[in-house]
Amino acid sequence: MKTLFFVLFFTLAFINYAQNFQLPKLNYEFNALEPYIDEATMKIHYEKHHQTYINNLNKALQGQDVTNLSLEDILKNVSKYSDAVRNNGGGHYNHTLFWEILTPQKNTQPTAHLKNAIEKQFGSLDSLKNLMTQKGLSQFGSGWVWLIVNSEKKLEVTSTPNQDNPLMDVVKTNGIPILGIDVWEHAYYLKYQNKRNDYLQNIWNVINWEEVSKKYEKIVPKGIFDDWSAIKEFHKVMSSTFHPSEEGDLEPIKKRSQELLDKAKSLKTSPIPNELKSKVNMATLDKLIKDCENVHKLVKSKAKDSEIIKALNQAHDTFHEIVGQCKH
Ligand SMILES: [Fe+2]
User: Fold this and answer.
1) What domains are defined for the chain?
2) How far is the CA of 52 from the centre of ligand 1 (A)?
3) pTM above 0.70, yes or no
4) Residue 283: partners with Cβ closer than 8 Å, 6 or more residues away
5) CA–centroid distance, residue 35 to ligand 1 (Å)
6) pLDDT reading at 28 higher than 80
7) Residue 25 needs a FRET pair 20 to 30 A away by CA distance; which of 149, 246, 271, 295 works?
8) How many CB atoms neighbour CB 322 within 10 A?
9) CA 62, CA 101: separation in Å to the nearest integer?
10) 160 CA distance to ligand 1 centroid (A)?
11) CB 14 within 8 Å of CB 6
12) What is the mean predicted confidence (pLDDT) over 197-215?
């Protein structure tokens, strides 16, 4: 009876505390990435290596109260856990991401939003690929090469040894990974043997850029005006004249009232993206042009500052009406 009580007690204790991580579903067949990643490698990598990280992670977390924590939460504070949690938690997270960013679909492309960010940071998609390939080659021993979004929301390439990753509080360069390439020998040895360079050159054929873009846009959402350059131009002039006027400085608007009016007019003549066309009320655009005309007229006639401020406030309010319409 006593033994039964203890068995029950400990079972309940573990049920309460144990976090039970499981192997995620693979969305393609083991042979789907041929000829770039072979079937045998995929099968062993997924069924054996990844499963082992999960088993060892669940074992390492037994008895610890982590039920309400996600794997990401644990990794962000991994210095507080054992090496087994660091290695196997990293192994589980890294491989889960790896399966997601691979695809049998050929020629997937980053979205315009991600492509712009890549070009801004690295020059071109090819330069990014070269940089990651070089990083992967120079990673001594086992590890990973990453494309991350850092705390400034910028893209950055980094690498980590073993099963560490950029989420961990024990690595030098932190960020959220959106693309990770496994450079452990178990990821390529059966097909490529010691030729890590060939593996790294070939893997680009099966990278799922749509998924990488999705991960990027979750962290850095596309702005509502990203496809309407005329309103971005208008906003630049509006913000650099309106905000100083709030502080009592009317010099910027006095110098740029004509420019503000021109940018307002070009909102109607420039191509409005279809997505926004249906939302933006043309009458509000006309109102904005009228408001800006009024500001310019007052500036030209050297009206009182208080009148210019009032007119600029009105134009600013109308601009925000347009912003509001775009958001719905
Ligand atoms: Fe691996």
Assistant:
1) 2-219 (3.55.40.20), 229-327 (1.20.120)
2) 11
3) yes
4) none
5) 18
6) yes
7) 149
8) 22
9) 30
10) 13
11) no
12) 97
Query: How far away, in angstroms, is 186 Cα from ligand 1 center?
Result: 6
**pLDDT at residue 14 above 50?**
no
Q: Which residue has the tokens 């890294």?
A: 94
Distance between CA 287 and CA 276 in Å, rounded?
18
- Please check the confidence at residue 9 and state whether its pLDDT lies above 50: no
Q: Ligand 1 center to residue 53 CA distance, Å?
A: 10
pLDDT at 13: 45
CB-side neighbour CA atoms (13 Å) of 52: 5
Cα of 92 vs centre of ligand 1, distance in Å, is 9
CA of 41 to the centre of ligand 1 (A): 10
Report CA(69)–ligand 1 centroid distance (Å): 24
Query: At residue 11, does pLDDT exceed 50?
Result: no
For residue 32, report the distance from its CA to the centre of ligand 1, in Å: 17
Q: Distance from the CA of 256 to the center of ligand 1, in angstroms?
A: 58
State mean pLDDT over 150-167.
98
State the distance from the centre of ligand 1 to the C-alpha of 42, rounded, in angstroms: 10
Nearest to 136 by CA among 145, 126, 128: 145
DSSP 192: H
Query: Around Cβ 108, how many Cβ atoms within 10 Å?
Result: 14
Specify the 3-state DSSP secondary structure of 179: strand
Across 92-111, average pLDDT: 96
Q: For residue range 217-238, list pLDDT tens digits in order.
A: 999 998 877 778 899 899 999 9
